[in-house]
Specification:
One of its GO terms (molecular function) is ATPase-coupled intramembrane lipid transporter activity. By secondary structure, the chain is α+β, with helices and mostly antiparallel strands. It contains 12 helices and 13 strands.
Length: 450
């Protein structure tokens, strides 16, 4: 081992001299990549791997659902509870801190505050560095906590909505979160459908109804749904428990416009089989537009179409935050240049590298830490003013991290039918046209006049 570690252990040949500089360049490139933001990529990848390991998805399978008999289900299906929170009690503080220290501004002040624990770099009292940083983080945590509480309240309202459940003894009121696969649920007109169901019966004589799907696919036109013919012909609601029938449903999937399944009634000779399609379904988050419907629940919770098509909640970053982050980096470079000039005026004498860092700490006030606090408090004020605006009553601010982005809108493009009926601006213009080279020039001239 000593021989291998000595300089005389090996002699470099010509090929070694050609490959070694390339290796050194690659090493410097890797180090530069790590210092310039690679550490954030590595941390994010590690967190995603940890979350993926802790949240292993159960394999989705096709299922057989017996009418009115949840106890006959072969597997345990997820609870029918809606959850839109980003954090929980355990992950709130680490999650918020991670999101904050991704920005160069907060990370910079954290490094400066930690440097005061080194005696040779200490400039002043510790509280002069840690108190402002702690106040900034406290304001951010309060804002995130308020948003999280609002999301929790909205979820609680949705999960606490009461529905009529049909049992052998009659109708029973149950919460939306207590609905199980196999339950027979009665949904009245203008009521939200709590889970994915198969349409069995309706109060309409023609055996069909209309539903509104604007909260599911953004379309405002009503959709026609048709009942299962076998169950619609039954004389009374209670007869649903006198028949031996089940629904074979495909495994949960993302496509909201297709469905494959079968309805089977076994107590007949011969058994009755009916194929099921999208016209026999009632997806969650849709609203009954006509009549009263009765359906059997086939998917709940995380397996519903509406939930499968919902992406995981992420922390939204606005353009103003990104611009502030770039501005902070520019000020930091100016700060370093100024520190180098101060050390150069001393002739780089003595422990000049330590003096350089001390100058960086002294000039740290070039970057105002109050800027982040004012920005967060302003965003909260914007969100509150939007919700209290009398001209737009009923407006709900879903997040307080990007309300200022509404002031940056120049062009609004959408491909969802029925989402926007009228477009208002000040001064008010209501128009509808196809944009091309010939039409954009007059619009730009009109915009410049105001």
């Amino acid at each position: 081992m000593p021989l291998m570690m000595s300089e005389e252990a090996f002699e470099n040949d010509e090929s070694d001299y050609q490959t070694l500089p390339r290796a050194r360049v690659s090493q410097r490139t890797g180090l530069g990549w790590f210092l310039c933001g690679g550490w954030k990529v590595l941390c994010t990848s590690c967190c995603e791997c940890l979350v993926h390991t802790c949240r292993r998805k159960k394999e989705l399978k096709a299922r057989t659902v017996w009418l009115g008999h949840p106890e006959k289900c072969e597997e345990k299906y997820p609870k029918n509870a809606i959850k839109n929170q980003k954090y929980n009690i355990v992950t709130f503080v680490p999650g918020v801190l991670y999101q904050q220290f991704k920005f160069f501004l907060n990370l910079y002040f954290l490094v400066v505050a930690c440097s005061q624990f080194v005696p040779s770099l200490k400039i002043g009292y510790l509280y002069t560095y840690w108190a402002p940083l702690g106040f900034v983080l406290a304001v951010t945590m309060v804002r995130e906590a308020v948003d999280e509480v609002r999301r929790c309240r909205r979820d609680k309202e949705m999960n606490s909505q009461l529905y009529s459940k049909l049992t052998v003894r009659g109708k029973v009121q149950v919460k939306s979160s207590d609905i199980q696969v196999g339950d027979l649920i009665i949904v009245e007109k203008n009521q939200r459908i709590p889970a994915d169901m198969i349409f069995l019966r309706t109060s309409e004589k023609n055996g069909s109804c209309f539903i509104r799907t604007d909260q599911l696919d953004g379309e405002t036109d009503w959709k026609l749904r048709i009942t299962v013919a076998c169950t619609q012909r039954l004389p009374a609601l209670g007869d649903l428990f006198s028949v031996s029938a089940y629904v074979y449903a495909q495994k949960p999937q993302l496509d909201i416009h297709s469905f494959e399944g079968n309805f089977t009634r076994e107590d007949c000779d011969p058994p009755i089989h009916e194929s099921l399609s999208i016209e026999n379904t009632l997806w969650a988050s849709t609203v009954v537009a006509s009549g009263t419907v009765i359906g059997v629940v086939i998917y709940t919770g995380k397996e519903m179409r509406s939930v499968l098509n919902t992406s995981q909640s992420k922390n939204k970053v606005g353009l103003l935050d990104l611009e502030l982050n770039r501005l902070t980096k520019a000020l930091f470079l100016a700060q370093v240049v100024l520190s180098v000039v101060m050390v150069a005026l001393q002739g780089f004498l003595g422990p000049w590298f330590r003096n350089l860092f001390r100058f960086v700490v002294l000039f740290s006030y070039i970057i105002p830490i109050s800027l982040r606090v004012n920005l967060d408090m302003g965003k909260s004020a914007y969100g509150w003013m939007i919700m209290k605006d009398e001209n737009i009553p009923g407006t709900v601010v879903r997040t307080s991290t990007i309300p200022e982005e509404l002031g940056r809108l120049i062009y609004l493009l959408t491909d969802k039918t029925g989402t926007f009926i009228l477009c208002y601006s000040l001064p008010c213009f209501i128009f509808s046209l196809f944009l091309c080279v010939e039409t954009t020039l007059p619009i730009q001239k009109l915009y410049n006049n105001y």
